[in-house]
């Protein structure tokens, strides 16, 4: 049995976290946390996935170097500046690790380095170096530590993103927690997001990496807000083994239990990111079933939730299913339009709007009521196979343009 608990990245044994205001961005409010620190009591097995954008920020490259040996002790992350495409970016990313190492007694290579914020402006490394002693001093292994760290990595996010789960693996209670940020510049291929996951499970690097890569493809890579893939994305898992379970080194039933817990956590995080898309008023889920393959279903669902016209229709609560089937048509996924059924669903009910690729009579008032809910599902059955996939996005509102029109200022 898996259950949700409190505590975020501090829920698992041996992990502490903090978040402080360092003043990375000159215009930021003094009560806005912008520097996060996560630290384990024991060395962790570590695995990560990164943005597929050809342009990668310096912290991504530095973290890639640091995790080549498959281990880490903690994470240093800032918001307010992406440390990307600017002078001294690599040196400053390295300096973040060096500063954390000096204060904690570890090596610079023991830390994951992450940044998020404005691209193209040199980061205020002095502010980070000055803020880290306070971050170390405030490290705590309870709910408030995770909360502070979660808030420190937020940029245009309107809510913190935090989840913790617990389950039995091999007779031992294993805990997993995570924090994430993500709101805009989000598109499949690791949409703009940072996600840090901690667990006290004992698992090998190979098994951890296999699980993470497979799950990221099924969760975070199925989120889209605006079609832009960021330069700074990463998802990192740290496992310190303090739960005392038998080491997971094969894909057996213990691995399956761990996999399902990581899948549940990443799915919850992905939904939170989509729901908090910049300016969003609705979480939009597209469920495609009856497909020839999971890849086919995923392509169709991604095209639908990524369509600006579909997103605009969801904002207007307009049951314009023509935009849905149009997006399916340019997805490059194989399907037969004359077999397609489309329904709109929410807490207010469900309504069929397209059957066998053609219009059906439906109650527009009922459709409007369904589409005015905060969570909407576009359910598509292509009636050609047994496979399915689910992708997440949001509506497109006036506020998205307002937020991004003056993002730098």
Question: Your description of this structure?
Answer:
Helix 1 packs across helix 2 (89-104). It is built from 11 helices and 15 strands. Helix content is 32%, strand content 26%. The longest helix is centred in the middle third of the chain and has 23 residues, at 253-275. Mean pLDDT is 92; it is low at 184-191. The strands form 2 sheets. Strands 1, 2, 3, 4, 5, 6, 7, 8 and 9 form a 9-stranded mixed beta sheet that branches. Strands 13-12-11-14-10-15 form a 6-stranded mixed beta sheet. The radius of gyration is 22 Å and the shape is globular. It has 2 domains: 3-275, L-amino peptidase D-ALA esterase/amidase; 283-405, ArgJ beta chain, C-terminal domain (Ubiquitin-like (UB roll)). It is α+β, with helices and mostly antiparallel strands and 409 residues long.
**Distance between the amino and carboxyl termini:** 48 Å
The CATH architecture of the largest domain comes to 4-Layer Sandwich
Q: Low-confidence runs (pLDDT<50, min 5 residues)? A: 184-191
CATH fold group of the largest domain = L-amino peptidase D-ALA esterase/amidase
| Mean pLDDT score | 92
Write out the CATH superfamily name of the largest domain: L-amino peptidase D-ALA esterase/amidase
């Amino acid at each position: 049995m898996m259950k949700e608990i409190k505590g975020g990245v501090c829920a698992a044994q041996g992990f502490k976290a903090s978040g402080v205001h360092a003043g990375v961005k000159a215009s930021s409010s003094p009560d806005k946390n912008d520097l996060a620190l996560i630290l384990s009591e024991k060395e962790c097995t570590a695995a990560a996935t990164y943005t597929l954008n050809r342009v990668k920020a310096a912290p991504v490259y530095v973290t890639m170097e640091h995790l080549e040996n498959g281990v880490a002790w903690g994470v240093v992350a800032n918001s307010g500046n992406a440390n990307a495409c600017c002078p001294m970016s690599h040196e400053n990313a390295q300096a973040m690790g060096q500063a954390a190492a000096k204060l904690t007694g570890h090596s610079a290579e023991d830390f994951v380095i992450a940044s998020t914020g404005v691209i193209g402006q040199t980061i205020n490394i002095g502010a980070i170096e000055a803020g880290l002693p306070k971050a170390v001093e405030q490290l705590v292994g309870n709910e408030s530590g995770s909360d502070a760290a979660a808030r420190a990595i937020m940029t245009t996010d309107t809510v913190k993103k935090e989840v913790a789960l617990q389950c039995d693996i091999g007779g031992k209670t294993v805990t997993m927690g995570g924090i994430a940020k993500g709101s805009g510049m989000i598109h499949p291929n690791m949409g703009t997001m940072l996600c840090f996951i901690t667990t006290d499970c004992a698992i090998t690097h190979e098994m951890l990496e296999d699980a993470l890569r497979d799950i990221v493809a099924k969760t975070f890579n199925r989120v889209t807000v605006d079609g832009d893939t960021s330069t700074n994305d990463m998802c990192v898992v740290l496992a310190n083994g303090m739960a005392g379970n038998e080491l997971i080194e094969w894909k057996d039933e213990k691995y399956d239990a761990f996999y399902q817990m990581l899948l549940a956590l990443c799915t919850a995080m992905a939904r939170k990111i989509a729901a908090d898309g910049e300016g969003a008023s609705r979480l939009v889920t597209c469920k495609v079933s009856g497909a020839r393959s999971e890849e086919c279903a995923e392509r169709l669902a991604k095209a639908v939730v990524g369509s600006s016209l579909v997103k605009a229709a969801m904002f207007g609560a307009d049951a314009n299913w023509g935009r849905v089937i149009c997006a399916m048509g340019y997805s490059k996924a194989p399907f037969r339009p004359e077999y397609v059924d489309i329904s709109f669903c929410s807490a207010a009910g469900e309504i069929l709007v397209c059957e066998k690729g053609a219009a059906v009579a439906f109650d527009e008032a009922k459709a409007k009521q369904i589409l005015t809910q905060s969570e909407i599902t576009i359910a598509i059955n292509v009636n050609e196979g047994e496979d399915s996939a689910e992708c997440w996005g949001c509506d497109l509102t006036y506020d998205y343009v307002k937020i991004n029109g003056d993002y730098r200022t």
